[in-house]
Design brief:
There is one protein chain. By secondary structure, the protein is mainly α. It has 3 helices and no strands. Helix 1 runs antiparallel to helix 2. The radius of gyration is 19 Å and the shape is elongated. The relative contact order is 0.11.
Length: about 90
Amino acid sequence: MTQDNQQKTPPMPAFEDSLGQLEALVKQLEQGDLPLEDALKAFERGVTLTRQCQQSLRAAEQRVEQVLAGPDGSLQTRPFNDVDAQ
């Protein structure tokens, strides 16, 4: 099967985009003027956005841990300045 025929998962939206959308939904819900059905849809969308944000944060944490892993696989802590300078 060629790569063109393989089904690809859509890319996850950027963390900042998801967070911005979530903040807008929270403001909308806090105003309290949405009809019940619209409020429920907004809440469901908010749950989805929250999960996307959590997944992005977990992925970032894993990347940081990989960068900080020592030669034996143990995590090494060092000041942020040392990591930033490398």
